[in-house]
Write a structure and sequence with these properties.
Oligomer: heterodimer
Helix content of chain A: over 70%
Largest sheet of chain A: none
Helix content of chain B: 25-40%
Structural class of chain B: alpha+beta
Strand order of the largest sheet of chain B: 5-6-7-11-10-9-8
Number of helices of chain B: 6
Radius of gyration of chain A: 18 Å
Shape of chain A: globular
Shape of chain B: globular
Structural class of chain A: mainly alpha
Number of domains of chain B: 2
Radius of gyration of chain B: 23 Å
Number of helices of chain A: 8
Largest interface: A-B, 69 and 61 residues
Distance between the termini of chain A: 62 Å
Order of helices and strands of chain B: HHEEEEHEEEHEEEEHH
Number of strands of chain B: 11
Distance between the termini of chain B: 50 Å
Chain lengths: ~170, ~300
Amino acid sequence: MSDRDSDFAEYFAAKSDAMRGTAYLLCGDWHRAEDLVQNAFTKVYLAWNRVSRHEVLDGYTRRTLVRTFLDERRRGWFRREQVAEAPPDRGVAPTSGEDRMVLLDALATVPPRQRAVLVLRYWEDLSVEETAGVLHCSAGTVKSQAARGLQTLRNTLGERDYDRESAR
Amino acid sequence: MNESELRDGLRRTIATADQPPSMNTDAALEAARAAHRRRRTTVAGMGAAAAVVAIAVGGTVALSGVDRLDLTPGGQGPLTTPIATSPQEAGTETVWPTGADGQPQQDRTASNGERFEQGARLLTELIGVVPAGYTVPQRTPILTTPDSTAVLTPDTDPWSRYNQSQFSDRVGGVEVWEHLASLAVSDGPTTGRLYVEVHTPGNTLPADTCGMAVSLWGLGGDCQVVSAGGKQVGVVANTSDRKEFDRWAAFRHADGTVVFVAQSTTFRGATAPLARPLFTDEQLAALATDDRFHDAVTE
C-alpha cells in the first residue's frame, strides 16, 4: 500500500463516522449518508496530494461533503428524499426515537442550502464565518439562511403539534 | 424552537439513532482508487485520441506527461492549448469545468491547463514580493505525502511552496475560481509564511470591506479599513485560536476580483518563528492592491 493509500485509509477510519453523522443530518438516511461520505472522501482522495498536509484537511473534507450533498441534491439525486410538506402525524406522544424522526422529517422540509447552514452551525458548531467559508457565501447570507431555516422548522413542528392536538 | 433547542435536538437525533457499523475502510479506499484509475485512464485515452487526430492532419504532437497537450500543425506555430471553458449543463446535471484534457474535471481542483498555470503564476508573483534578506525554498518540494517520520524542512515540506486553483461556483453563467499560493519564508533558522488568495470576478464574498476581509478561511478577527494609495483595504488581526495567519489584508478590485494577502511569523510550527512580521499593515494593504496578483489570474 502506498503512503497515499495508507494515510488516506487512516484518515478515513478516523473521520468517516463523524462525517457520516453530518451527512445523515443533511439527508436523513444512513445509506445515502454513506454514499455521500464515500463520494466526498473519493474526491478528497483524488486531491490528496494537494490537501493531505494542509492544516485544514478536516475543513476541506467537510466542505467537500456539504458541496457534494448540495450538488447531488441539485442534480436530483436526492429527489426521492423530498418528503411531504408536513411530517406525518403519528397521533401519539413521541418516544425519543420518534422525536428523532420528527426532527429529521422537519429538517427535510428545510431547503437544502438552509439545511446545510443549520447542520453546520448547530451540529458542527461552526461559527457564522466558518459556515460562510464552507458554503462560499457571506456571513450575512448565513445569518439570514439560518433564520429562515429555523423558521421553517418552527412552522413544520408547529403544524405537527397542531395536528396532534387536533387528533386528540 | 430556538437555536439552543435545535442544537440539543440534533445531538439527541444522532445519540438515539441506530447507527450502522462503521464504514469499511478497505472498501472506501478501493472505491477511491478505482475513481483515480478511471481518471488516469480517461486522461491517457484522451491523449492517445488527440495524438491520432494530430498525426492524421500532419501535425506534430508534444506531450509533457499528461499535463499538457500542444498541437502544432506543421509550420503554423502553436495553436492555443485547450483551456477550461464554462461548465456544461446536461439536462439537470451540472458537471465540473472542462479541464485541459478536454474532459470535465473530477473535482474542483484544476490539475493542469490554464487555470493551474494561473495559480503557478500567482506563486511566482508571491515569491517576487518577498522582502530582501529573506530566503524561500530553492526548489519545489515533491507533492507527495512524505514519510511521517521524516523531518520536514522548508525544502522538503510540500506546503512550503505551493499553489492551487479550484473552481468555486458558477454565478450568473460566469465561472468563479479561487487561486492560492503559499510560501515558506526564512530568515536564517527562522521561518514564517506568506500567502495570497485570489477570487475571480463574480465571487459572492461580502461586499463590505471588513466583512470580506474577515471571511478568509472563516478566521474572523479584528478588522480595520485602511487606505492604500487611495484604495480601501481591510486589514485583519487574527483573534481566533486558529493560528494559520497572524494578519492579512483584503482588497476588491473594480472588476470584482478579491485579493487576500496573509502572513504569519510561524510556518507549520516545525521551525523557529520569524523574529518579526514580514510586512507592516500598510505594506500588506499595499500588496493586496498590487495589480500583479490580480493580473496573474485574470490575464
